[in-house]
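Today's session is about reading a structure prediction critically. Students often jump straight to the picture, but the first step is always the sequence itself: look for stretches that repeat, for charged clusters, for runs of hydrophobic residues. Only then move on to the predicted structure, which in these notes is written as discrete structure tokens rather than atom positions. Here is the chain we will use throughout the hour.
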Amino acid sequence: MTIREQVEAMEESTLSEYASLSKNAVERDVFEEFCDIRPVYQRDRDRILHSKSFRRLKDKTQVFLSPQGDHYRTRLTHTLEVSQTARTIAKALRLNEDLVEAIALGHDLGHTPFGHVGEHILNIICPEGFKHYEQSVRVVEILEKKGEGLNLTREVRDGILNHKSTGNPSTLEGKVVQLSDKISYINSDMDDAERAGILTEEDIPIAYREILGFSTKERLNTLIHDIIRNSMGQPDIIMSLDVRQAMRDLRKFMFENVYTNPAAKSEEEKGKRLLRELYEYYSNHLEELPEEYRNMIAHKGHSKSRVVCDYIAGMTDQYAISQFQELFIPNSWNII
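Below is the predicted structure for this chain, in token form.
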């Protein structure tokens, strides 16, 4: 018996009856021989972790564009916090941690430079539209490994696609990530807003704090425990009505007071114009796209607009800025 088979047997004997067992995973689109050490979801997790798209998350905006300080979240630190929260819940509920972690690490791979403002502008200018959760799936299916994709299992891709609020993940592990994403960004973004001086703890309505807690730590503790307590032994991931409503109200409060706050969004119009200019430039100069992107148009039937969006969405904040400077800002003359 291989190590992988031993791990699969351990999953079957220890995980919840509602967990997604690695041995029951839906096959990959392209058949591969099984690893002798790692079950399929662990293998998927490793592929995402070692991907170029994952590494680029460290230089992509979470909420605050070009913040002055080292302690603000990036898209990468947000992703790691989602993974940590989701694994805590999954372990307590005896769900498949490898599947949870793979979904969590991959859920935001399709995010653009400059956070949601980048997603917003690409959705406007790209004829086919643009949604980061759809782009995350496109990254792992098509764009990674120079057009080969990562060939992930269907359960991982389903969880990535359905992590949005209106999504309906097919596994409990996917549902855990879906809630963990909201828990993480609401609380971490509140923490960053307080660090930026946009809000104080006392600005949060007392009704929400009385239910969820009077600090970021207390709120995280309340939300995680509520999910575990209400989902234990259940075929679904459940929150109590009062805690779920308080979380929704707090999310609405964040949109009204942080996500649209001028201090957090003061640079967004610049980001929009920058990405629009880059889109128009590369749409008219396809020959300047990297070879792997040109091949997608010439040999794989992808539309020009979609491939240009792929290229821009994959950029980090700083790379997008440097490309804009190179293309549109005159260089200083070297006069001897």
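Discussion point for the tutorial: The mean pLDDT is 93.
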